[in-house]
Amino acid sequence: MDYQISVAQSDVAFRCDAGETVLDAAERSGYAVPYSCRKGVCSSCEGGVVAGGGRSSVQGDVEGPTERVLLCCLRPSSDMTIAPRKIEKREPVVRKTLDMSVYRVTQPGADVSVLQLRLPAGVRAKFRAGQYLQIELEDGSRRNYSMANPPHESDSVQLHVRHVSGGKFSEGVLRGLEKGQKLRVELPFGEFSLQDESTKPAILLATGTGFAPVKSIVEDAIKRKLERPLYLYWGARRLEDLYLAELANKWHASGKLTFVPVLSEPHKGWTGRSGFVHETVLEDFGSLAGFQVYACGNPAMTSAAHETFVKAGLPDDDFFSDAFVHTDIRP
């Protein structure tokens, strides 16, 4: 059995198989809905149900009309009319499952490792700058990591892994990896990509390893010689937590973008910016009308930035986020 999913105030409609989520059905039919974690935590895919009903693995039974429904977890039990925050026509998602080889593991920060994986000879990974992949562990569970390399470097992927206390991957698998060892991955996932149809100045907002997809976006923009202004605000507790600050400073010095590091716990003698990274953006710009914002990092930051920036004049459709939801804890 399948169900008809219609989008309110539009002619968009697609079929959803029994047991399939609304988000998965939309992707399969060639429609892009904003999402990040796909686990019902980050709220990026939140939308309304105008009519019809279903069952959410996080929210329980859902019956329209209702708002703030997580489309990544919603499986319909009838035909349904939905009101997503945004939906766009795209080519249907084509994902690959590949066995990648460990090439190098480095540690640029005290709690961050950079994992370089190589694809099989002659195989290329097609993805958009800012997207992520999933690593499948031996027990069948998966971990999401953004690809930090730009799409033109398609024979390998670079992942920035934050060490999580008790982490099955970051403190378990990662520590035992050797060169040549295989990891099974599926890619690509995510809608956190620079909107090419816009020429508005873009504010790139990151905390921690949220820098990874931003790095991909910036290096892709440089490769494609995009002329729109880019502003990178990278927040961390301490200076050493900005584990690739030298690279960001290099972009700044070459005029590729404006880089502003922000520390919430600055050391004595720090003369740069301090406080919350999203509040620093407001201090510098005031009204955000006429901008686009791409925020990536912990959910508290992305949520606070969204609420604050919309109040400061940013159109809701010009805010894009990728909330890093940690699932790397042993059960």
Task: Describe the protein's architecture and organization.
By secondary structure, this protein is an alpha/beta fold. The chain folds into 3 domains: 2-89, Beta-grasp domain (Ubiquitin-like (UB roll), Roll); 96-189, Beta Barrel (Elongation Factor Tu (Ef-tu), domain 3); 202-323, Rossmann fold. It is 17% helix and 36% strand. A 6-stranded antiparallel β-sheet has the order 14-13-16-11-12-15. A 6-stranded parallel β-sheet has the order 20-19-18-17-21-22, with helices on both faces. α5 (277-285) runs parallel beside α6.
- What structural class do helix, strand and pairing data support? alpha/beta
CATH architecture of the largest domain: 3-Layer(aba) Sandwich
Order of helices and strands: EEHEEEEEEEEEEEEEHEEHEHEEHEHE
Binned, the helix content reads 10-25%
GO molecular function, one term: oxidoreductase activity
Domain 2Fe-2S ferredoxin-type: 3-88
Protein name: CDP-6-deoxy-delta-3,4-glucoseen reductase
Keywords: 2Fe-2S, Iron, Iron-sulfur, Metal-binding
